[in-house]
Every structure is written in structure tokens, then in C-alpha cells.
Amino acid sequence: MLKVRHYFIILILTFPILVSFDPNGLPRQFFALYESPEGIQFISYSKEWDQQKLVELYKELLQNKHGKELNYLQEVRVIDGALSSSLTKGSYHALTNTITLYQGGKYTETSEYRETLSHEYGHHFAYYYFPSHHFPFSEWQQLRGISTTNLRWDAFWNYKEKNHAFYPQEVIADDYVLLYGATKKLDVNNIESNEVFYLRTEHENQELPNVLENTDLQMFLEEESGIKINEDRLLQSPKLLKWSDETLLFQISTKSNVAYRLNLAFHDSFNSTLNSEVVEVYEITSGKTNGHLEFSLDQIDQEIFSKYEYVSTTIDVVDLSTAIGFQTEEKTLKLNN
């Protein structure tokens, strides 16, 4: 009986890895092959991806901060087809240490896979250093500040695309993207067109606490992996300090070249923003800030303040030097009419 129990425990612990096998067979013919100095096989099953593009893909991979775990990555594959009927661009398989990039016939430039490659490598990073992260009550989950009830723990036997953002495996992979992943610069001239906010790199689950200001978790990741997190990519969520009809004052990170878009939705019902009137106000930090950001509301038609009972606010944030950003939690304020 004891022997059976041991086998059962082993099965439970290895089940997530066993079921991570790719159920979809690969094409028999590959079009190009490149082996990196670390021994990672880059294999193209798409005629759109020749050896030179695989070399570029390897260079893109290296833009993600890495340590000894890189040497244990076995393959990066590019295939033409999709994963079942999904729009998924990538997947990672823990048993084979393999990243698969899908829709290679559609995405033909390395930059189009940047965030996907970072995310999938984030899985590799997570399973190497934190193999228990997909179980409840792991040290990672506790330091991340997420209740077990706010995540889904059934990805391996009850996976659903609609729950993707709530699986711990996906949360930690996106954490890696923000803390260690490849970055890019955004054009300051595209702020008021809102393009920079659409192009930002953000966590899929915007309901979770901001990992970019979680110093306890960051220290834990650094200690376990030995990989330092660059401080210049960290961003504090703006915190409201003062509110009037003339200004909104927030406490922010003391760094320059960060774009902020204040979204104001004026409405009459506290619990509903239906039929609201929306206004956007933009600011960008320059030089070394004093940790404060003031939005002037003088540019807004003042009649709007007397027309409505409430205003709901969110702030879109993006660091133009890294493209990293997020949207803050919505807050509703009562107007002083």
C-alpha cells in the first residue's frame, strides 16, 4: 500500500509536466536549422523562415535577461500552422524544454514574435527556478500578493482560453516579460494619437497587483535565479494625493520619459458609466521628477463638472524607453457641484 501511495504522489507531482507534451505532430520536413553556441536547436517548419531569420530569432531571444537556465532550453520551433483553432502565437513544453512559435507563414519578422518569445521563455525561466509555481500556496504565489481564490489551478486538466490570464503559469510568465523581457523604445510623437498606449508591453491580467512595484517578489526572484532586475524598468502605480475641479495630483515614479493618459468618465450613477462623457488628458515626465504628477483640468470645459454627479478615473501609463506600462484600477469620485 505504501508503494502505491508513493507512485500516486509521483504521478501527482509530474502530471503537469507529462500533460505538457505537444499533442500536435510536427511536419516531417523542416526548411531551415540553426544551432546556437549553447546548443539550442532553432528549427523552421515554415518556408518563410530561413536560417538567417532563425539566427535573428536567436539574437532576439538573447535580449531577454537570462542565466544558466538558457543552457537547458532545447529547441525553438517555428511552424506555419495554428495551435488547434486558437489564435495563440506560442507555447512552451516543460518536459522537452521546447518553445513553439505558431503561424510562421503570417508572422514573418522577428519583431512580431518579441513579446511571445519573451513570454514563452518566461515559462522556461519559471519551471527551471520555481517548479512548484503552478501549485497553490507556493512561495511565489504568496509573495506575488495574490489570493489562491483569485487564480485558476486547473489548467492541466480543465484548460479554457477564457481563463488564460488567471492561470498561475501565465501570470509568472508575464511577470518575467515585465521584469526581464526584451524591451523597445516608443516614439514620443505618438502619445496624443494613443498609439504608444496600444503598443505598450503590459501584463495580460490587469486586475492583479502591479509586479513592477513589488520589491519583496523582485528580491525573491533575484535571489533564486541570480539574475538582477534592472531598476530602470520599474514603474510605480500613480497614487491620488489631491483632487479638485482644477487639478488632480498623483504620486508617481521619479523617472523621466514616461507618458500618462488620464481617462475621465463623467456620469450620474455611482455604479454605472453608461452614457458617460469621456475626456482624456495627457502628460509626459521630463527630466528628474519630484515624484509628483499634476494634471491640469483647465483645458476641460468646466460645464461638464456641473452636469454630472460622479467622475470615474483610470490612468494609462507607458515608459517610452522600454514600452512597459499598465492601466490603473478605476476610482470613482463624487463631484462637488
Structural class: alpha+beta
Task: Please tell me the total number of domains.
Answer: 3
What is the overall number of helices? Answer: 9
Largest sheet: 5 strands, mixed
Helix content: 25-40%
| Computed Rg | 23 Å
Element-by-element helix/strand order: HEEHEEEHHHHHHEEEEEHEEE
What is the arithmetic mean of pLDDT? Answer: 89
What top-tier CATH class of the largest domain fits best? Answer: Alpha Beta
> Which regions have little confidence, pLDDT < 50, spanning 5+ residues?
1-15, 17-24
Number of strands: 13
Overall shape: it is: elongated
Can you tell me about this structure?
The protein is of the alpha+beta class. The chain is elongated. The chain folds into three domains: 22-128, Zincin-like, CATH 3.30.2010; 139-232, no CATH class; 236-334, Sandwich (Immunoglobulin-like), CATH 2.60.40. A five-stranded mixed β-sheet has the order 1-2-3-5-4, covered by helices on one side. Strands 8, 9, 11, 12 and 13 form a five-stranded antiparallel β-sheet that branches. Residues 1-15 and 17-24 have low confidence and may be disordered. Helix content is 26%, strand content 21%.
